[in-house]
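Recall the central idea of this unit: under ordinary conditions, the amino acid sequence of a chain determines the structure it adopts. In this exercise we apply that idea directly, starting from the sequence alone.
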Amino acid sequence: MQKALPLLNDDSSIILTGSVAGVKGTPAFGVYGASKAAIRNCVRGWTMELKDRRIRSNVISPGPIDTPITNGQPADIIARIAATIPIGRVGRPEEVARAALFLASDDSSFITGIELFVDGGRAQI
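Accordingly, the structure predicted from this sequence is:
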């Protein structure tokens, strides 16, 4: 049997991008949400498949983030989205980047198989 991910060094870290849509039902986003849930399932499998190589795999799942896509939305739409987030605002790209850096670093050396939500609490309510 061929070794899974043979080009990846032992002791590496895999970080896939999910979304709160993978756990929250959103009208008109069913296929998107299903694809993000599939990413989570891949990480679960890889966590077990790659454990002997000490390769950690995790998912980072952002909520609504202030990006060029959201910049084009009317202010009332952004306000409605922000109202669904316990922190009361959309996230910033650097907040997602810091979470990814943490998962890539040795600071998370005992973390594998998780889905880290960077969403202001949206997926938790």
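The mean pLDDT is 92.
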